[in-house]
Amino acid sequence: MIRSISDALVTLTPDRAELPLRSGFHYHEPVTGLIEWMPVMVNGSRATIKVVGYHPENPRRYELPTILGTVSSYDTRTGHLVGLADGTFLTALRTGAASGVATAAMATADTKTLGIIGCGAQAVAQLHAVSRVRKIARVLTYDLDPATTASFPARIEVLGLDDLTVEVADCERVVRESDVLCTATSVDVGGGPVFPDTETKPWLHINAAGSDFEGKFEIPKAMLKRAYVCPDILLQAISQGECQQLTKDDIGVELPVLIGDRELCESLMPKLTVFDSTGSALEDHVALELMLGYGREFGLGAEIEIESFSHDAKNPYEFVFEDRGVAAVENLGRP
Amino acid sequence: MIRSISDALVTLTPDRAELPLRSGFHYHEPVTGLIEWMPVMVNGSRATIKVVGYHPENPRRYELPTILGTVSSYDTRTGHLVGLADGTFLTALRTGAASGVATAAMATADTKTLGIIGCGAQAVAQLHAVSRVRKIARVLTYDLDPATTASFPARIEVLGLDDLTVEVADCERVVRESDVLCTATSVDVGGGPVFPDTETKPWLHINAAGSDFEGKFEIPKAMLKRAYVCPDILLQAISQGECQQLTKDDIGVELPVLIGDRELCESLMPKLTVFDSTGSALEDHVALELMLGYGREFGLGAEIEIESFSHDAKNPYEFVFEDRGVAAVENLGRP
Description:
Two copies of one chain form a homodimer. By secondary structure, chain A is α/β, with parallel strands linked by helices. Chain A folds into two domains: 2-89 and 283-321, ornithine cyclodeaminase, domain 1; 108-278, NAD(P)-binding Rossmann-like Domain (Rossmann fold, 3-Layer(aba) Sandwich), CATH 3.40.50. Helix content of chain A is 35%, strand content 21%. Chain A has a seven-stranded parallel sheet with strand order 9-8-7-10-11-13-12, with helices on both faces. In chain A, strand 8 (138-142), helix 5 (146-155) and strand 9 form a beta-alpha-beta unit. In chain A, helix 1 packs across helix 3 (88-106), helix 1 crosses helix 11 and helix 3 packs across helix 11. Chains A and B meet through strand 2, strand 3, strand 4, helix 2 and strand 5 of A and strand 2, strand 3, strand 4, helix 2 and strand 5 of B.
């Protein structure tokens, strides 16, 4: 997925794909939450739309992830729904993978220590992706909730990182000793930054994965100002990401431009860099295409027929007369 | 559905529901088409998003309806996908039902003759709905394609309108003799109007259901200017409906306001009126809620589990270790 997202970012330039800014419903009743739609179309091919919910009270109230969502693929020839996948796992994976792309582009090659601030679900995906592009020997973890850092080692067993040391550390030490730092918190609007400004390794690369909402950010402004800040999508990062704290002159090129510029990447590796990851529908598109491909390859998933169109396209009620009209209704069970 | 849409339009005022303007992808490769998303949220309850494709070459190329789509419902408490339904049939029904609401509000009570210009799938739904709010004795049909008018009587048998005469007529006669006229064409951008300006019954009510795209309209401008024009959604009608041909001063109140004003409705019944129906996500919302309700009541549809969240919300890979983690993957078949 890291490679596929990297390829897509470089090849799917604005003349080859449309990527409108996401939009959504924000509300405070019945709970604080947001439901957003994130559309993207690869010209002449498919459109992917993720509908994603962000409900910070989900874990406490319902034992559900903060992020729930569904990703759908549509054929631009006909409008057919091609496929539908859970968006929770897919979002976790692609958000990690995007940090993998940014880390490969900006982190020093001999990165050994990864710091993680906010050790929930996304922290696992961040370590997963970063460990695929840099050889990580040590992870320093910090979370407001000690139970979350405590359970982290068990949750990353699946990643198969055998020579890895995982340590719980105080927040400032995590920042000071890291070569790469991932922030993946659910900090409240107005509650950031999530760590104090402090001395860092000169080559520290930060993947700021948590800020995705107006007023929500994780990195201290002074540190951001010292860093080269690469947003995934500039306009989105300015309104919802770390870039909220910056003016346009302080902000570097977008990730797709950056990874296409090998020289720029080399020049940034010894420097303080930040990937301002607000999330892109293009990442979702790539992730869904991979999932659908693997689904076919390994016989996973299920075919569902929900379209009720008639054999005679001009007769919307054909199925009332003829059973053959609507495979969907039959397959999904008549009483 | 007519009653439910009418109730929803009156009760779901802007303080009780959010109805952003629809947006979408318009393209000419691989074929001319558009894929739009139409979101609506009933505050504190559910959000409905329809993703709808409009591909005029579908019938000729693929024997598919011009309109294909999928409608999804999301729980605003958690972001859960609540349900998913085909959007083709649902769109056909709700577009008819909206004309039913408008006809009940603006057509003269002793309407007998319904004219239909454009006798495809939507014409069936228009007759269906209009026949539920007015006693229709005669239908005058016109379509550019004689085969379409020829097949119309067979396609409306299901509606159970026993005392109904259906006649094929020339376009102008359809307009002149109708008490209510429904236009439901796939006229090309720039190809309208679909009938000439002519004398009409003074009380003619027109449901203009076909125009839903920039540059696409069905009614002659001079006739529109003589009429009271009621848009479903003003801003949308101005950019995509008959109202494209008008300035704001020429346009009446929106349908939700109109049907809440009994006196205004009475005053309009003897007059020339036009319902400029561009389509509302609120109509889709009502239609989906009804479908989901009937699905439960009659045991139709199927439960699908696609969410892959873990028991431990902080462990996105739990299912790698434990089968119980992901009901979805099991239900959809492991290799």
